[in-house]
Specification:
This protein is mainly alpha-helical and about 100 residues long. It contains six helices and no strands. Helix 2 runs antiparallel to helix 3.
């Protein structure tokens, strides 16, 4: 049997930023960077170039929708449905707002 680990819902970065803004009471904006800008920033921060390329490829895939798989595999495999992002962030707000 093949299972794809998936999400309860797929959210673009600007929606994630909006949820964090709402919960934190602070304006959070997603700033889109080109793949070259992302790679350069990661390398300047000390990430080895090959690893930076892999990380950037994840973001490129997400931007194309390649990673927006929504399904039931998490529940099927683990027995419990995943928590949606807003609920998770609400439940853990005290920790991430420190």
């Amino acid at each position: 049997m093949q299972m794809v680990l998936d999400f309860l819902a797929s959210k673009p970065y600007h929606e994630v930023a909006a949820i964090i803004s709402e919960l934190s009471g602070k304006k959070i904006a997603h700033v889109a960077l080109s793949p070259a800008q992302q790679r350069d920033g990661l390398v300047k921060a000390g990430v080895p170039a090959p690893i930076a390329g892999v990380l950037v490829s994840f973001d490129e895939g997400a931007a194309r929708g390649d990673l927006a798989v929504v399904g039931t595999a998490v529940k099927d495999f683990g027995g419990t449905a995943p928590t949606d992002l807003k609920t998770l962030l609400t439940q853990t707000k005290a920790e991430w707002l420190k």
